[in-house]
Design a protein that fits this description.
The protein is built from ten helices and ten strands. InterPro entries: ClpP/crotonase-like_dom_sf (IPR029045), Enoyl-CoA_hydra/iso (IPR001753), Enoyl-CoA_hydra_C (IPR014748). Belongs to the enoyl-CoA hydratase/isomerase family.
């Protein structure tokens, strides 16, 4: 087994043809701040460039996969230039993950919300535990999804169902997420690793090069659409940050109360 020590907020292990990448900010439920995003992007590029690896497994340390973007750090952004830099990093992160020339498997336990859920959707196969909580909950603070989720949800659900899910901001547990088509497997609590190991063995016993050639074809067909979605999300998210509803959503979040939106 090879262990990479280059990163502070992710853990990267490689063994044979399998790389395991773990988000590692457990005290914040693996909320994605600039440091974690930088480490994650670096680790993804390392895996992408390793010809020995054909399967990447993405999981989260601690009580959940990821609670999403780190709201506290986002509140500290001083202007459009800093915001633009963060959004560019998110775009590169999602595009690198989506186009990864490996079979990408995401294992979810606990929460996978907002940008954390977007990362999972950019993978090829998603497993979750039945008591997991999955949410595209940007609407709760007056924002739109980012991380390419408009495209990624459209791919899984179709436009109409994706729009409804985004507008509702509903939290889905594992079995309902499976029935909706948001994940590919829902496992009993505590059985996530068993499911991951089973899927790894299935892939290792398959003609992986043929699998990855099919993935390459779909990436080639869809890459421009995903990039267009990322560009539109960047523009739209900046506009939404200026709205009264977003300011009210943030105040309500901090004060732990229901927001009172006014459509402005």
């Amino acid at each position: 087994m090879t262990v990479s020590n280059h990163y502070e907020t992710v853990k990267l292990h490689k063994e044979g043809r399998v790389a395991r990448l773990q988000l590692n900010r457990p005290k914040s439920l693996n909320a994605l701040d600039a440091g974690l995003m930088k480490d994650l992007l670096g680790a993804l590029k390392e895996v992408k460039g390793d010809p020995e690896v054909s399967i990447l497994v993405l999981t989260g340390e601690g009580k959940g996969f990821s609670s999403g973007g780190d709201i506290k750090s986002m509140l500290m952004l001083s202007g459009e230039e800093q915001f633009s830099g963060i959004m560019d990093t998110i775009s590169e992160l999602v595009m690198t993950l989506y186009s990864m020339p490996k079979v990408v498997v995401t294992g979810i336990h606990g929460a996978a919300a907002g940008l954390g859920f977007s990362l999972a959707l950019a993978s090829d196969y998603i497993l979750c535990e039945e008591d997991s909580k999955l949410a595209m909950n940007f609407i709760g603070i007056g924002l739109i999804p980012d991380g390419g989720s408009h495209f990624l949800l459209q791919e899984r659900l179709g436009t109409h169902k994706a729009k409804r899910l985004i507008w509702n901001g509903k939290v889905f547990e594992g079995q309902e997420a499976l029935m909706k088509g948001l994940v590919d497997e829902a496992l009993p609590s505590g059985k996530l690793e068993d499911g991951i190991e089973r899927y790894i063995k299935q892939c290792l016993a398959a003609p992986t090069k043929a699998m990855l050639k099919t993935k390459e074809v779909y990436v080639s067909l869809n890459k421009e659409r995903l990039q267009h979605a990322l560009d539109l999300e960047k523009e739209g998210q900046w506009l939404m940050r200026q709205t009264g509803d977003h300011q009210e959503g943030i105040r309500a979040f901090v004060e732990k109360r229901r927001p009172e939106f006014k459509g402005n």
